[in-house]
User: What shape does this take?
Amino acid sequence: MNRDSRATVVFNRTGLILSRSGWTLGVWLLLLALLIWYANLIPRFGEFQITSISKNSLPLVYLALGQAVIVIAGGIDLSLGALLLLSNAIAARFMADQPLGAVVVIALLLIGLIACLNGMTGYVIRLSGVPDIVVTLATSYIWSGLALWILPSPGGGTAPEFRWLFTGSESGIGGTYVLPVLMMIIPATVVFLLSRRTRLGLSMYAVGSDSNIASLAGLGVTRAKVASYALGGALAALAGLATVAITGTGDPRFSVGANATLNSVAAVVLGGIALTGGTGLVLGVVAAGMILIMLNPILSAMGINPNNAQILQGVLIAIVMMIGGLAALIRERQT
Amino acid sequence: MNRPSPLLTITGVAKAYGSVVALEAVDMTVRHHEIHALLGANGAGKSTLVRILAGVHPADRGTLVVAGKTANFRTPVEAMRGGIATVFQDPALIRDLTIAQNLRLSQTNPDTFAQWLDEFDLGSLDRDRMVRNLPLDILRLVDLARALALNPKILLLDEITAALTADQAEKLFELLDRLKSDGCSVVLITHRLAEVMRICDTATILRDGRNVAELEVGGITQQELVHAMLGSPVDLAPDTPAGIATPTTADAEAVFAVEELASGETVRQVSFAVRRGEVLGLVALEGQGQERVFDILCGERRPSSGRILIDGSPCRFLSPADAVRQGVVLIPGDRLQALLPSLPVYQNLVVTLITRIRQWLGLPADERARAANAIDSLSIDTRAAAQVRRLSGGNQQKVAIGRWLVSGFRTLLCFDPTRGIDIQTKGEIYALLRKLAADGAAVLLYTSELAEIPLVCDRVLVMHNGLIVDEQVAARATEASLLTAAHGLV
Assistant: This one.
């Protein structure tokens, strides 16, 4: 192969990657545009705002990453919000007034426990053949109930150092933006690499694309399914930990979990992952989660009634999805 | 004589899906250095046997012995480890991933894979292409190369030539011959008897879930193979021979016509007319634009230029439903594309009627009777009538045709309707098409089996590279004359 043709191959490959991740790129550009708009909208934009946006996005971003992995593998998990509640309740109850060492041990155990619980849910779905949406709807009530049982009313707490880890400040107010940004980048990168660079991750895409063909090709469908649910569970647990770090307490109300579930699905859709499974990159979901969180401060800075904010959020999702549909249509026309 | 033990021995294998018995009891022996044909009419149990050998479904009873070891495959991976590599009818490649990612998933050695692919001059295939963007023939070869890279003892090929072009099939046959002498045995499932006669050593024939014969291919004729498959001698030709119809339809009015149809680079210029009472054939090699022409004719796609005429007046199809309303209906090659797979036969037949609003509350008695008649007149095997997906391919195709019999039509577009269908059902479908034409319909039939043309059609068009390059009288068309034209050598 001579130099020129090698250059074309590299060029073609860059073009290919760009065209295939066009949606992901688009969502990040939209986030950037919103950030710039927001920065011009308010009188002072600085470290405080960046910290606040990034830390407030953490729970939704984690949850949406978990939902993304499950949706890519062909499922959908309505219990993720409830798992966030459960993790939040357990953490707030048992971390209160504990030294940092104990808090860290509890956090790690909690992630492992909830990953196992949700992995089992995935196994039950695969074994019983009952649709994902039905099984996880049922488990969502179980986990929410369990959360209320563990922490009957809002309360509890965690170690200040633990709050610092997620928010950049031991009191949860102000602080450096480095930590929340890092806490967003690290898990997102890990999940991204896991989903695109490992055999396990690719087999999740394969199972979500067509589980029959995946099994004919000799892949472990059950393993991929269980792994996707376990990973989703671990991320939901992380979202619960982030919530307790940000708020400083536990809140076991059912509506918190239900809202979180719906927002995670919205972020997945906006992030460019088809609900039919098998396509999309988890990186887009990170930006989509932050966009959904940023809408509230932007709309309130514009002086819009927060009750109307939801309408605008819905309209935005619909418009973005229609743009995606239009782009797909134009691409098809061209071929 | 010192006879080595066979490579694969199947004894008394049985399998039932619910109440439908797919295999009663099958015995089969594959020796070393052998290309073994597995033949049978549709519903005879070939696909089930393939699934059992490939580890997709376990057998209910019976034993498999591979190279002296008893095997009980529970998953495809176990079958692969046991030395059986399978190329399924539909490529086992994930559509949403690239070729390279698919190879990584199945842990295929990329270099070995590339060597095998190069046998078909595809060594330079870009591995970063998405599977869903590649044509079917390439995918089947990719799947084949991946199976060969496993270095199997037994290679199981299910209808592999169906999507291949003539020269690809030729290369495949040479390759199989070489594999045979290298010690890999091949089990070939096919409906094309000419292939069996040409490359196979032995043929096992299945009928109604049992093996009824094992024949040495060397000493028999195609007719004898057909005889063994059906259990009774059959006449391939339908009752109303084609060709006879030609003089009477020659001056009949054109029901359906297209003028200078074009669509991008794929379809450059296509004009023809189908007359009342006529079956017009269309043949082409893979990928000459025939799919696109049918997409346009059935309303799925709009042409970039050109006109469609019904009874001489121009018309536009806004959607497939619009085409159906104007009397133009399609029978696609992929039967499951036309059917609602998890609904019963009856509902599949009447679904086109339900789209009319006044019938939402229930169908009038005469239309229910028409649906029942269609089941009878098409002799659809209704043992598995509760779910169309559980019918055999031939019966599914009959349901797809039956639906239009129930709702009525004027122009019937058939895209390779007999692909993968057994010989007896094929005969029935030929007779049905002739009868529909005799009743006044216009039929356009694309087929990948050239031998069908003189049996069914009045005239035949040959398409090459987006153009109609030849027209022949079907009764005088031969496989040779059609193939020559299809290669653009007119």
Notes: Chain B has two domains: 8-230, 246-486. The first strand of chain B starts at residue 8 and ends at 17. Chain B has a mean pLDDT of 84. The longest helix of chain B spans residues 166-182.
